[in-house]
Amino acid sequence: MIRNCPNSSCQISSSQSKIRSDGFYFRKSDSRQIQRFRCSLCGKRFSSATHSLAYYQKKRRVNFPLFKLLASGVSMRRCAKILNIHRITVKRKLHFLAQKARLDQARLLRLLQSDRVLEMQFDDLITSHHSKLKPLSISAAVDANRRYILGAEVSVIPAFGHLAELSRKKYGRRKSQHKKGLQKLFGSIQNCIDQNALIKSDEHKTYPEFVSRHFPKATYQRYKGGRGCVVGQGELKKLHYDPLFALNHSFAMMRANINRLFRRTWCTTKDPQMLKNHLDIYISYHNNYLI
Questions:
Q1: Could you tell me the fold of the domain covering 65-290?
Q2: What is the rounded distance in angstroms from the CA atom of residue 277 to the CA atom of residue 151?
Q3: Which DSSP helix (H) or strand (E) runs through 211?
Q4: What is the pLDDT of residues 167-225, one digit of tens each?
Q5: Residue 88 in contact with residue 267, Cβ under 8 Å?
Q6: CA 13, chain centre distance (Å)
Q7: What does pTM read for this prediction?
Q8: What is the DSSP letter of 245?
């Protein structure tokens, strides 16, 4: 618990030697008694909730139910209906829950530095930004043995295939941010991967460059992608043995539990940052409650 004086000009803002208890107060939002403190040097009064991410929130009771619903395939508007709150409250709390989830993920990655990943699998999941003419790429990596999702980054990519010409005609040329996304993903998890780890991916032409840059001593294996089966909505492959099963199964669970990633849905992403927030919430729920 942080009990430092919140007054930045106080000389003991980083010390607890002059902090004294100063009673309690009753918090209506979750029916708890909160400890108050007082700095004996500057006289500043604060509480154990002052440094909390949920500081000034009035509906703390819905935070955890909303966290579970957002990671269980429920749309934001339906979350508002179920919890009897306004949809704008859901939007604001999604930002808060994503921030909290990123802190949880950073804590997990610090723990993995002492028990490093021995086999990592990574690939990209394709989704869209409001329209299939504006695709997005989700670069993700998983621990194949313990099934942790190590991280995920959202990148803007240009349309490809039969939609490419129509996309350029309607929205102009889109710059690819895929390499920046891979660089950010690998940079965030580099310290968690054993230097002699086994790394697996498909045969995407961009991947070897980043693997050799970040994991030069690792054993890197590439596999040809297989046809998707109906179960798993195309993410699980129609193979007798799938060498990337841990990753593909994690992608299939994302498709099933993040509403905006459903194959057939009218809940599309209007802002790539909101997709990133939703992904962080699901990753935290997956790593802490599902496995």
A1: Nucleotidyltransferase; domain 5 (3.30.420)
A2: 12
A3: helix 207-214
A4: 999 999 999 999 999 999 999 999 999 999 999 999 999 999 999 999 999 999 999 87
A5: no
A6: 32
A7: 0.90
A8: H
